Amino acid sequence: MEKRIGVVAVIVEDKESVDQVNKLFSTYGEIIVGRMGIPYKEKQLSVISIIVDGTTDDIGGLTGKLGRLRGVTVKSALTQK
Q1: CA torsion angle for 32, 28, 67, 13 (degrees, to 10)?
Q2: Would you say the pTM of this structure is higher than 0.85?
Q3: Could you tell me where the DSSP H helices lie in 16-55?
Q4: For residues 7 and 4, what is the distance between their CA atoms, to the nearest angstrom?
Q5: pLDDT of residue 9
Q6: H or E element, residue 1
Q7: Which pLDDT does position 19 carry in this prediction?
Q8: In sequence order, which ranges of the chain are alpha helices (DSSP H)?
């Protein structure tokens, strides 16, 4: 399958989901090129951006599992090639 490069934005509003988010990042570590996370204390949430390089199936697997977690919002943008 063809690989694509993209960015995944993750907003974590429920602190109880943080461990599950990090476990998923470890599980999908082979497609993660870089990660930046910022705790936004005033709003009681965290914003994480992930640079990914993988198949659409792998990227979709990660974003789908993240999106099913309580208090987690996910959006992604991928290259066309």
Answers
A1: -70
A2: yes
A3: 18-27
A4: 10
A5: 98
A6: none
A7: 96
A8: 18-27, 56-67
Residue 56 makes CB contacts below 8 A (sequence gap 6+) with: 1, 4, 78
Tokens 């099913």, located at residue: 68
Token pair of 48 as six digits:
């994480």
For the stretch 11-46, pLDDT in tens is: 999 999 999 999 999 999 999 999 999 999 999 999
CB contact set of 8 (below 8 Å; sequence gap of 6+): 49, 50, 52, 59, 62, 63, 66, 74, 75, 76
Six-digit token string for 78: 């991928």
12, 70 contact by CB (below 8 A): no
Whole-angstrom Cα distance, residue 53 to residue 51? 7
Contacts 24+ apart (CB under 8 A), 61-65: 61/28, 62/8, 62/24, 62/28, 62/31, 63/8, 65/24
